[in-house]
Write a structure and sequence with these properties.
This protein has 515 residues and is mainly beta. The chain has a single domain, classed as Maltoporin, Chain A (Beta Barrel). The chain contains 3 helices and 22 strands. The strands form 2 sheets. The protein has a 20-stranded antiparallel β-barrel. A hairpin with a 3-residue loop joins strand 10 and strand 11. The chain is globular and about 70 Å long.
């Protein structure tokens, strides 16, 4: 296992409210229905809103086990945040914003106030419309340092990911387009103070890095709904701290087919990737004992993806996802924005080294006049072929050990009911099972129920949630969250007919990143 707190050093638990606001991967999942430990308090759980919006949130909660640890005890929590999603397509500027972020103040305990949750925003500046654009993207999330411990302030690592670069577009024929991106990215990481003000948690791993590379995509349209595409990418990642991280390059190429109409979104692709990791610490047995050396190692791996979203009835949608692809903690967070229906979000580990992720998921949504039901299941496996960068052995990196290899099985169900034109009720539950190499299996369960009242731009949300994790951690939290809609839709009026269901989820209408 990567890092385990020693006796007396087990961090205090910030409680399930932190789990609720912390999205560790695939951020869109927290906005469109599925319920996970990381998204208990997502703002689009029900049919309380329709259309795009952005709201300021403020609330007061109580967690009966927020100070889990040596002393135990509960704590009141105050929050101030921003939630919602907005998108715009213009002649000179395209943008999208997806946010469920808040600053949380614990009235008991010694945790500092830091952003908790996630934010993802992208802007495309059209310098020469149709030919030359400049892209900027900002993403913030948090990753788990020790998967065996609760997601406490000391066990969460902040990741801030900034990407920018030019985009050139060519159209050699009416049905063919060629897009070339130049990309430069910066990742900064941090954690909550532990021993001294301003000092990082004892478990903190510095995965600060910068990367540069490019993306190429060629699309040939057969009709207004069907197209064939060829895409490739290359990036080099260089870490600030190479004592516990390994610089690497990743090249990928694939060919795919996409079909998009009023009932179906289908995207199928397959290809090849080459991952090259530098200065890997290798242990070799010899006649004089175990010798250590550093080598450059290469992994060739097939990549593939199948994403299908289909309206099987006017009020029912099924989405299927299966994929295998390489990634790292920062880039994996952004995956899923360009799929039709994001599903249950697995956690991200705070490890710098790249991994191969394989996932299978099903999402079923029923949307009636006043009732919405969403059921989602997902299997995710992580394979670190060169070891996890935050694994320590006698104080030295041991990158040859696949210490974070793990499997996750996740399931969630959510029922939303519009009681009156201004009152909505949600109830849901989740289950998560994780198997990590050389570590005991863990289960997590939980549930939530809330009542939402909204008139115009003002709203109140009364929440109760329960969370349980293997090892004896349980908590209950309840409170009230007030919101004011800054932009976009206010309360949803009670419909005379059922709202139209699309093969896309709401967030998929945003302009997705080119890959």
């Amino acid at each position: 296992m990567n890092v385990r707190p020693g006796p007396g050093s087990r961090p205090r638990c910030r409680g399930a409210f932190a789990l609720a606001l912390t999205l560790m991967a695939l951020p869109a999942a927290a906005q469109v229905g599925p319920l996970t430990p990381q998204s208990l308090f997502f703002q689009q759980a029900s049919n309380a809103r329709s259309g795009e919006y952005l709201a300021a949130d403020a609330g007061l909660m109580y967690n009966d086990d927020a100070l889990y640890g040596a002393g135990g005890g509960g704590s009141a929590l105050a929050l101030l945040g921003l939630s919602g999603y907005l998108s715009h397509l213009g002649t000179r500027l395209d943008y999208h914003l997806d946010s469920n972020i808040a600053a949380i103040k614990y009235f008991s305990g010694d945790y500092s106030v830091e952003p908790t949750g996630y934010l993802d925003g992208e802007a495309i500046f059209k310098i020469v419309p149709g030919d030359f654009d400049w892209i900027g993207r900002e993403s913030y999330t948090q990753a788990v340092i020790d998967p065996l411990a609760p997601a406490t302030p000391n066990n969460l690592e902040n990741l801030n990911y900034i990407t920018t670069g030019p985009r050139f577009t060519l159209r050699p024929t009416l049905r063919t387009s060629v897009t070339l991106d130049g990309v430069y990215s910066i990742v900064t990481s941090g954690s909550q103070p532990r021993y001294l003000p301003g000092s990082p948690s004892a478990q903190y791993v510095n995965i600060d890095n910068h990367s540069y590379g490019g993306n190429l995509k060629i699309v040939r349209a057969f009709s207004s709904s069907a197209s064939l595409y060829l895409k490739g990418s290359w990036q080099k990642v260089e870490f600030s701290d190479t004592t516990v991280n390994n610089d690497f390059t990743l090249g990928q190429g694939s060919v795919g087919y996409r079909l998009e109409n009023g009932r179906t979104v289908l995207d199928v692709s397959g290809g090849y990737s080459q991952l090259r990791v530098y200065d890997v610490l290798v242990h070799e047995q010899s006649v004089v004992g175990i010798l250590e050396s550093r080598q450059t190692q290469t992994l060739d791996e097939g990549i593939w993806a199948v994403n299908l979203s289909r309206l099987i009835a006017p009020d029912q949608r099924v989405a299927l996802t299966a994929a295998q692809q390489p990634g790292d903690a920062a880039t994996f967070f952004q995956l899923g924005f360009d799929t039709a229906v994001p599903t249950v979000a697995p956690p991200i580990f705070a490890a710098g080294n790249p991994f191969i992720v394989r996932t299978y998921a099903v999402d079923w949504r029923v949307q009636e006049l006043r009732t919405t039901l969403d059921v989602a299941v997902r299997y995710v496996s992580y394979n670190y072929p060169f070891g996890a960068s935050n694994s320590l052995s006698n104080g030295l990196p041991s990158t040859t050990l696949p210490t974070n290899n793990s499997d996750f099985k996740l399931a969630s169900v959510l029922l939303a009911r519009q009681l009156t034109p201004t009152l909505n009720w949600d109830v849901g539950g989740y289950f998560q099972h994780q198997d990590i190499v050389d570590a005991p299996a863990q289960n997590g369960t939980g549930g939530i129920t809330d009542l939402r009242w909204r008139v115009g731009r003002l709203g109140l949300r009364f929440v109760y949630a329960h969370n349980s994790v293997s090892g004896g951690y349980k908590d209950n939290q309840f409170g009230v969250i007030a919101s004011y809609t800054l932009f976009g839709a206010g309360a949803s009026a009670q419909q005379e007919t059922a709202p139209a269901l699309s093969p896309f989820s709401p967030l998929s209408t945003q302009s997705p990143p080119q890959r």
